[in-house]
Specification:
Elements (H helix, E strand, L loop, with lengths): L3 E2 L7 E4 L8 E4 L2 E4 L9 E3 L8 E4 L2 E6 L8 E2 L4 E2 L24 E6 L5 E2 L3 E6 L5 H10 L11 E3 L10 H15 L4 E8 L7 H8 L7 E5 L6 H16 L5 E4 L4 E6 L10 H14 L3 E4 L9 H5 L5 H20 L10 H5 L5 H8 L8 E5 L9 E5 L5 H10 L4 E6 L11 E5 L2 H6 L6 E2 L9 H16 L5 H4 L15
Helix pairs in contact: 1-4, 2-3, 2-10, 5-12
Amino acid sequence: MQKFIKIHSDDCVAVALQSLYAGTSIEIDGEAFHLKEDIPQGHKFALLDIAANMPVLKYGNPIGIATKPISRGCLVHTHNLKTQLGELLDYTYEKTDTTLAKTKDITFMGYKRTDGKVGVRNEIWIIPTVGCINNVATAIAAQAKEFTFGTIDEIVAFPHPYGCSQMGDDQENTRQILADLIQHPNAGGVLVLGLGCENSNISELKKYIGNYDKKRVRFLIAQECEDEIADALNIIKDLSQYVGSFKREPISCSELIIGMKCGGSDGLSGITANPTVGAFSDLLISKGGTTILTEVPEMFGAETLLMNRCANEALFEKTVNLINDFKKYFTTHNQTIYENPSPGNKEGGISTLEDKSLGCTQKSGKAAICGVLSYGETVTTKGLNLLSAPGNDLVASTALAASGAHIVLFTTGRGTPFASPVPTVKISTNSALTAKKTNWIDFNCGVLVEGTSLEELSEQLFDYVIAVASGEKVKAEQAGFHDMAIFKQGVTL
């Protein structure tokens, strides 16, 4: 196994791929020196003497400036490095080459819906309009398990705390996300469960849902029932006859929409898992498919790399607005733009938001950006899309599902058991995490620094995604986990 990696030829730091100790001999670019300090796995060390206030380069880009002189062979981290990020910036469009060669199509076994969409699961979803009936929705899902037959994968409730006592954008977000999930093709059937007196009641929500298949989407208002659980079970019993009739059939992978997200990142995230997901994204796009990248705050510091990959100037301007609008969201709440990375990120070797963002955006690969989506907007353009959503794991993954993602690829160096409304593939950045959390991790990218090539590993990930799209359950599904969370921005009455 490699001991360390210099990611880009211009970098003045290298990353330890295993824990290294003071006195270890390092040879790089034809020069040899000894480490002056212990360097934990995933952390950085200086390849040359770095003066105070000098930019520190990683991934070929600045990840901050040195706060004090740093000698070659010393640890580079939060004690001697700080962010350069500030407020709103002016950007210039400098388009870069994003050409991808087309590759051969491949099929997965999925479900064709009556509206022309395709799904990778055939589930019945119970979606409450308001938090007041969460327990009722959960009870209905538990009692309805007896109606899981034929090709029905599962009957799932999606409780959430919103739908009433909300104002402005918050209420709009709730209605839009619920409407998006109601129309998601991974659900062969949906029961929309209302209370009756809430702001986002069923009559109001129907305005956001638009046209729908009445065989597939059913509604129940609890306040109008004598026994809402009994009535709901009768609906689901009837609905299950319809949903259970769908059969898997071969579908082009060009119909796949895959969301990309990371959380609990470590110093290897931008070296192993995120580049592998980026190579996967390019491979799927080369076959006509679609990917969605989100968590805007973790683009800060790397945003120009994305902006210059926009297919045209109009998309460039939308990406500028995407970034600046999120910066304004921070400042209007009197929060610093760069209040990131998290304690777990820092423990894993990430020092600044630029450090985190340059690693995070590796998930986007090299393809052109063909679409920029607002929060709750569903994807319509094939290729790579950017989506407005925060970095929070549950909120961002739900946003990806609401925008149409069939599957979410979630890279992690720390591990997490959470799920989302769609199959959520946990991709480890290091082999130790995979060995420790076999009940969480679905795919190991730690082997990238153990001899496996990026091309080989990305093809393995592609094959695994096709298997998941064809019905193989990920670890969170095997555990029975399904989560959702809506972006909360404003006042609660």
